[in-house]
Amino acid sequence: GQNIDQPTEMTATEGAIVQINCTYQTSGFNGLFWYQQHAGEAPTFLSYNVLDGLEEKGRFSSFLSRSKGYSYLLLKELQMKDSASYLCAVLDSNYQLIWGAGTKLIIKP
Amino acid sequence: IAGITQAPTSQILAAGRRMTLRCTQDMRHNAMYWYRQDLGLGLRLIHYSNTAGTTGKGEVPDGYSVSRANTDDFPLTLASAVPSQTSVYFCASSEKGEDNEQFFGPGTRLTVL
């Protein structure tokens, strides 16, 4: 079966750095997405990785290791508005997007 | 309209009733999707359409139908609602296909009693 694993919940302090991990087991791989979803709102796109390595976009970075079936989202200089759920999704060999259940990130002052 | 809109925002429905959730996008995106989101589970794809006139089944299509008569509209119909269809429904679109960023509508919260 296909599986995406993410921690259910994480807590971090305003101004700090947090790393949200995602491991996957899918039938093939055509890319990995990270989305942000604030409570009661729609998911919004953060990043897309298809090659190994780190992609940096402002305070957010996303890393991919295809050989390990692993990705992480790194958030720096955390702000209260970063409190949200972070969704990892993998595009499998059939170009079907398989979604993780999401990681709820709580930022404390 | 800017982006994707969904209607209604929320709905309480009696079991056995027919219901159509509406989705409209103004970005001229080719691909559109319907997901349901349940607590503790990832988004699950119900149906998709890669271009106007074509549709396909996702992971959980049973009890749902879709149509794509034009580029902009992608309605989702529940022919005879059941309580297990209580969920938040998101419509999304992307320019070309699944390897493109998806843009999501605000969602419809549906409760089936």
Kindly describe this structure.
Chain A is an all-beta fold and 109 residues long. Chain A has no helices and eleven strands. In chain A, the strands form two sheets. In chain A, strands 2, 4, 5, 9, 10 and 11 form a six-stranded mixed β-sheet that branches. In chain A, strands 1-3-8-7-6 form a five-stranded antiparallel β-sheet, with no helix packed on it. Chain B is mainly beta. In chain B, 0% of the residues lie in helices and 45% in strands. Chain B has no helices and eleven strands. Chain B has strands at 4-7, 10-13, 19-25, 31-37, 44-49, 56-57, 64-66, 76-78, 87-94, 103-104, 108-112. In chain B, the strands form two sheets. In chain B, strands 2, 4, 5, 6, 9, 10 and 11 form a seven-stranded mixed β-sheet that branches. Chain B has a four-stranded antiparallel β-sheet with strand order 1-3-8-7, with no helix packed on it. In chain B, a hairpin with a 6-residue loop joins strand 5 and strand 6. The N and C termini of chain B lie far apart (32 Å). In chain B, 36% of the residues are buried. The chains are: A mainly beta (109), B mainly beta (113). The A-B interface holds A 4, 30-31, 33, 41-45, 48, 50, 87, 89, 91, 95-102 and B 40-45, 58-59, 90, 97-99, 101-107.
Brief write-up:
By secondary structure, chain A is mainly β.
